[in-house]
């Protein structure tokens, strides 16, 4: 679905290629408060851009929240080294936010449907913009795309949460059933609540996740730097980077014995 969305977005952009320089200029002026600077409001404008950028960035790519690593940790990376999976995760953030979100902005701006401080925002604005460019079916396509994006996000995050409960040994049947009911209740609540309320709750919950995860990131930053240096050193030497637990004695007690040997064998077979 993401690929189909990007194909359609690129079609719209190339159909209006003459407007692209103007769009890029508008994005930079709005992002860095260049227009507001002339009116003396640069500080406030930049602060608002940073705050909203961080909040919506978290909502888009979950960078720093500690949710996506649930999937990364269960992957079998190649080259068989932890840093290789880290680089894959970085690519995911770039694709999600820089590519897909920029494509959405481009659709909205080239369509001429965007009105600063207008009443129409969010998904409805995207639907109108795409409909203006490709016809009425564009709005239907956006609705279908949003459904799949939202549905897969719910399934993925539920899977992360249940896996963590099982890891913490809270996997008795009654507890999992209660958790499933709570998840369904929150989905229903989000569907019938006002959009500002949903945004506010999402911002608070994601902020709390980020705070907790940032503590873990800071505590693990030393070993992360060491792993990255080991990966890049092997890469520069012309080798396929391979993780050797013996080089990281501080990690040996936390690793399942032979787990990285199994990862390498799985890729060879």
From TrEMBL:
Domain of life, source organism: Bacteria
Protein localization: Cell membrane
Membrane topology note: Multi-pass membrane protein
Assigned keywords, A-Z: Cell membrane, Membrane, Transmembrane, Transmembrane helix, Transport
InterPro entries according to UniProt: Na/Ala_symport
Gene Ontology MF, one: amino acid:sodium symporter activity
Transmembrane annotation, as ranges: 137-160, 181-202, 208-228
Signal peptide extent: none
Keyword Transmembrane helix: yes
GO annotation, cellular component aspect: plasma membrane
PANTHER family according to UniProt: AGSS FAMILY TRANSPORTER, SODIUM-ALANINE, AMINO-ACID CARRIER PROTEIN ALST
Family listed: Belongs to the alanine or glycine:cation symporter (AGCS) (TC 2.A.25) family.
The protein, known as: Sodium/alanine symporter
Organism: Vibrio ishigakensis
């Amino acid at each position: 679905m993401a690929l189909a969305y990007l194909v359609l977005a690129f079609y719209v952009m190339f159909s209006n290629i003459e407007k692209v320089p103007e769009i890029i200029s508008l994005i930079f002026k709005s992002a860095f408060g260049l227009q507001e600077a002339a009116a003396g409001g640069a500080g406030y404008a930049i602060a608002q851009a940073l705050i909203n950028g961080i909040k919506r960035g978290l909502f888009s790519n979950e960078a720093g929240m500690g949710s996506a690593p649930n999937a990364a940790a269960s992957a079998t990376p190649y080259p068989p080294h932890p840093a290789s999976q880290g680089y894959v995760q970085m690519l995911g953030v770039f694709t999600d936010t820089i590519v897909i979100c920029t494509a959405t902005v481009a659709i909205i701006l080239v369509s001429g449907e965007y009105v600063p401080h207008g009443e129409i925002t969010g998904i409805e604005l995207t639907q109108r913009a795409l409909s203006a460019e490709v016809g009425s079916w564009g709005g239907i396509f956006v609705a279908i795309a949003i459904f799949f994006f939202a549905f897969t996000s719910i399934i993925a995050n539920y899977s992360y949460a249940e896996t963590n409960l099982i890891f913490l040994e809270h996997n008795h049947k009654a507890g999992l059933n209660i958790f499933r009911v709570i998840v369904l209740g929150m989905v229903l609540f989000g569907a019938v609540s006002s959009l500002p309320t949903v945004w506010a709750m999402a911002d608070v919950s994601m902020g709390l996740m980020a705070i907790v995860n940032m503590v873990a990131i800071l505590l693990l930053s030393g070993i992360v730097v060491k792993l990255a240096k080991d990966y890049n050193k092997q890469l520069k030497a012309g080798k396929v980077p391979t993780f050797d637990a013996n080089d990281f004695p501080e990690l040996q007690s936390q690793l399942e014995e032979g787990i990285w040997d199994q990862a390498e064998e799985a890729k060879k077979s």
